[in-house]
Amino acid sequence: MDREECMLLGGDFNGRIGERGARNWEEEKGDGKRKTKDKVENAEGKRLIEWIEENGWEVLNGNKRGDEEGEVTYVGSRGETVIDYAIVNEAAWERVKEFKVGERVDSDHLPLEITIEGTNQEEKEKGEMREEEKKVIVKVWSEHGVKEYRRRLEEATFKEQEIEKMVTELKEVIEKATKKKEVIVRGAKGAGKKNGWWDRECEQSKREVVKALRGWRRNKIDRSRFLEAKRRYRERCREKKKQKREREEKEIKEIRTEREVWKYINRERKKKEPVSEKITIQEWEEYFMKLLEGRKEEGKAGTQRKEKQTVMEDTEITVEEVGRHIRYLKKRKAPGWDGVQNEAWMYGTERMVERMVELMNGVWRGEGFPEDWREGVICPIFKKGEKNRAENYRGITLLNTGYKLYASVLSERMKREIEEKGVLPDSQAGFRKGRGTVDNVYILDHLARNELRKKGGRMYALFIDFKAAFDKVDRVKMFECMRERGISEWLVRKVEEIYARTRNKVKVGEKEGEWFETTKGVRQGCPLSPLLFTIYVADVDEMEKVWSLAFADDMVIVAKSEREMKEMMRNLEKYVRKKKLEVNVEKTKMMVFSKRKRKNEESEWKWEESKIERVSEFKYLGYTFNERATVRAQVREVVRKENKVVGCVWGIGERMWGGEFGRRMMMFESMVESVLMYEAEIWGWKEQEEVERVQEKYLRWVLGVDRESPGYIVREECKRSRRVKAGKRAAKFEDRVGGREECRILTECYREKKKNADEKEREKYCRRNGYASEEVERMRAEGRWMCAELSERDRDTDKQERRERIREARYNREYERCVTEDVPVYLGRESTKERKMMARFRCGNEERENKYWVEEEERMCRMCREERETIEHMWRGCGEMREREEKERGEILNEDGREIGWMKEVWKRRERIEKERGGE
Prior knowledge:
The chain has 920 residues and is α+β, with helices and mostly antiparallel strands. Among the domains are: 114 residues, Endonuclease/exonuclease/phosphatase (Deoxyribonuclease I, Chain A), CATH 3.60.10; 193 residues, no CATH class; 178 residues, no CATH class; 85 residues, no CATH class. 46% of the residues lie in helices and 12% in strands. The strands form seven sheets. Strands 10, 11, 12, 14, 15 and 16 form a six-stranded mixed β-sheet that branches. Strands 17-18-13-19-21-20 form a six-stranded mixed β-sheet, with helices on both faces. It has a three-stranded antiparallel β-sheet with strand order 1-5-2. A hairpin with a 2-residue loop joins strand 3 and strand 4. Helix 14 packs across helix 26. It starts with 7 loop residues before the first strand and ends with a helix.
């Protein structure tokens, strides 16, 4: 089956998968459970879900609209169960509009009813008719467009000195300088026809060719002039395609996180969840006004009182500061209400940046705050659930890019002051210099493992989910917290100035609501907001007997006993009420880390009067913990996600790069590894065979070899090893932790881990590479960075182990004679067919003698049927092939492809003989 075709499997699979199979691979936290009324998982179900996840497929039951509760599919004398499933691949998932379990009385099995988009031809035709063309004005940021923009900026003059007038003037200058063009936006049928590289220059060049063709036909010009015009046109198209490919390659290489991977994939698949048209703009307004405690504007706001103050020269905002934050900006982001895009700043001239700095310093000195900077446009984004309910959407606020630059400068200055003064507790890692999610994951993992080493040891962890955390912040209390934590009065007043008045309006498609003022919450989409929330909850650990780990609003509290945890929860309830926050009890989960579950354990966990569910697995900051404190749950989750990403990346690569080996591997390394290597700092010490298998599957696809090709052969052929990279990540993290003082808790956990003799995976990794762990620590203490040495040795060890397996293998025993030290030269060939042909011969697919598991007859030469099919036999011994001079296998299958002609001859001769035999 083509990997881009839609696939749908349905029926009685006689397996119960329980709550596994949730479609939540884009979420960073949660218990990973699928809605279902059958919670039981049996052996058949376990095999079924492993098969589904290995192929990157999805279960419709309990995941798709129409079956939100996961209805039972079998009702009989043995009870009520879910054993009938509908399974789809990613391409089919997009086409399925609804899934539900129907009603039937003549069978114990209930029918599975699936509504598929585009199956009704009449409806499809109507849909195409509704696709209207419309003209829109877009801003041009091509090479020519940027040059024109900068030229116009150089000619512009800046005269105004008042803040409001300066903002208006700067906006108008940018608007006039930006090159624009009118384009026709069509529906899906006509969209992307030229794959993003076709532009006005191509169009003009094509018109010239058509004109030359007509002139030649009418004998008005020479044939040579027509051919020259045609050559220029083709050359231009090739150049545009090349530029497009280079842009794509650069964008892919810059991908770092799983979120960026899915954003890219969804954009390439043109996947976009539409906002329900059944929700009116008035309903959207009411929902967001209630959420943000907004109120309708009653009239034009009065002029803000200016409090101009003297600012020390060395504290003024500098061109270097603003320039640094401009370099952090990303292209193709939606602008705020003023329409000024990030590109306007990125491609701006020095004069324009200096003018912006002048404006910022006016605001910094207290000369006024631009009204434009107070405005935000709220756009609803669907989360999950019923699409016609506003609460199932989250709002993203588009702020003016000029304001975001100013807020970024403010945020950086505040972070610097926070670190200098030690404002935040050690347990809060969110958005701090030198800190990341892996720090908290490492700490929690170590604490749990440490407790479980003790006899009867347990650790209790409550993973807290705040409902609309940023939107619930009490602004007055937030300013109080900033002052109490020691933030300088000047910075506090600058933040107060921002929140003195904030205005929003809702925009859905072409529809817009009215402006309303908001009095609650921090601004979504503002660079300052995560830091402000972090300060707001920074005092949580100062309560009596509460110990937490937090990354912004992702919080977990831990305790060694049930009594301690319940006391912490009571204290935390008071804290949440005091801060006017709200806990989402449905998403808040309790996990008890222990080696074994105690018999008759019936502890009930409650938040106020609502029951909290105890789970055996939970995803915290993207890492899946289990109650045994092992890495198995995380590795399984990584493999599940990786299988899904591999399928998507393969389809995009086929369309974009075709069979180019280098670029296909670049896509794998940039996109798949962003998912694969997440938190490898925790699990990377040990070789994870499931992880290697996913890579091996992709390598087989790229090489074009059979599924039976052993993984160690395809990894040797492509010179790839996940184990080495994962181990390097783990070693590099410890190198970094050893020389850090930013986080006292993290450093203490690392020191304890070094003392633990039962850290088997870590110890094995060191010994595998020729060191004892104590020796590694001694060298680190001497100032040596061990990650490079360990990974280099691991690379050599991995190569030796791989080649040992090749020597001892029953499949393709002679492959060792073809092994190269570097990636084989033939993989750089332009011809995909030749490259795959060589890979099949080198990896043993074209020798039936390698199939030791089949009958003797099936191992015979497909041409002469007289001897076993080997390279040597086909080269000299087969009567159907012309006799050749004797050569060694290594020379026949040399990496440079010198005998590709012979390989083609073998394929053609086989094909001819098979046709002749078929006609007998």
